[in-house]
Amino acid sequence: MYTLTPKKVAQITGGKCVGSSNGFDTPIIGAVRDNRDVKPGNLFVCIKGERTDGHLYANDAFNAGAVCCLTEQELQGANGAYVIVDSTTDAIKTLGEYHRSMFDIPVIGITGSVGKTTAKELVAAVLEAKLCVLKTEKNLNNELGVPLTLMSINEKHEAAVIEMGISGFGEMSRLAKMVRPDIFLMTKIGYAHIEELGDLQGVLRAKTEAFAYMKSDGVAVMNGDDELLRTYDSKIKTITFGIEASNDYRAANVKTLGTSSISFDIVSSKGQFPVEIPAYGSHIAALAPAAAAVGSLLGLTQREIQKGFLSYAPVEGRSNISDVNGITLINDCYNANPNSVKAALISMSQLPCRHIAILGDMLELGKNTKDMHLDVGAFAAENGVDVLLCHGNEATHIYEGYKLAEKGEAEHYCDIEDLMGDIPNKIKKGDAVLVKASRGMRFERLLPVISAQEQHKKTV
Description:
Layout: H1 6-13, E1 16-18, E2 31-32, E3 43-45, H2 58-63, E4 68-71, E5 81-84, H3 88-101, E6 107-111, H4 116-127, E7 133-135, H5 145-150, E8 159-163, H6 171-179, E9 183-186, H7 194-197, H8 200-207, E10 219-223, H9 227-230, E11 237-242, E12 249-257, E13 261-268, E14 271-277, H10 283-297, H11 302-310, E15 320-324, E16 327-331, H12 338-349, E17 355-360, H13 369-382, E18 387-391, H14 395-404, E19 409-413, H15 416-426, E20 432-436, H16 447-451
Helix pairs in contact: 4-10, 4-11, 12-13, 13-14
């Protein structure tokens, strides 16, 4: 039986065990990089970052129950065993890859320019109706987060759903080498990280690096509504999903039930059955067939898939919808690119009320940044946005694109404080308010202002 211990960590990474030999054979359960997340049995990975050095918190990790630390240097006054390696970031990747290889369970890798977190949650919700599932938590989808997630696999798990996010060439290869997905789900090729990847063909090339690390009996689950994915030859069995009739798994008869849920039929060669998902947003119907396809591949029945969908819950900051003091607040400020902003605007346009969009810069779009922001502004005007409030240097062009359509009211604020101060004058009870921008804009700062009771004294 496979058991990870400090001694084993040293063997796998080529490191050196230091400290009390009594702890060298203690079982390790999972790994973390933040000492505040340590649980008894964990491996604590000391990372030297821009703002702090994890080595400073090693004893805090030991005191919280860590049985071992992975370090790049000797620890003064260490309270437990630790393993010294040349690079902790390289070592945790090696450990993640090794640990994943020790478990013979289906691993589903998920990527895409937009919708990968939603797809991950949908797939996990479906599979959890029958299986014990490990899934990516928080934003642990990069070259450090993925191996930390893989290190959490244990003998109880019957499947793993791993989100895989990249921003440049070569990253997906490094992730896939660790994950070795049995099923690889791709949501959409869109305008994310275009500054680094160049164009949509570049995004496609970067994302599809994963197929080199899949077995011949692996399965690609591809968005058939996306032209680039629909025509891509993965060299392995491929299942398409989406809304269009040509897909292997598709959503039909879509009905939005206010902000509380969405219902539709899942249609495939195996038949047709109704599902309901307690979530907001038209993107749910486009992604859910992928989750149904994965569930079917792993032997779930229609009834189990229906049950799984009913347990779905969105991740914080991803199309979270709430009623606050008479308004419908759509918190989608985790991140943004042209595709995701347009999807959010389409979803809001289906609500029977006045529509307010508070939009900020979409970052890392490269040389076409201006045109993409102008296009989003025009799209907002054509898709029912009554009032547009913008902040950010690039968001100036969202404002300009909207104004050119001569549809509704728009404002651009150079200073975030000016936007905060004017929000009470722009929002009325009964409005739907979408908040969306790239993570670097920190638009979560606006949420308390929008939610404040005293801000909404007007009525429509």
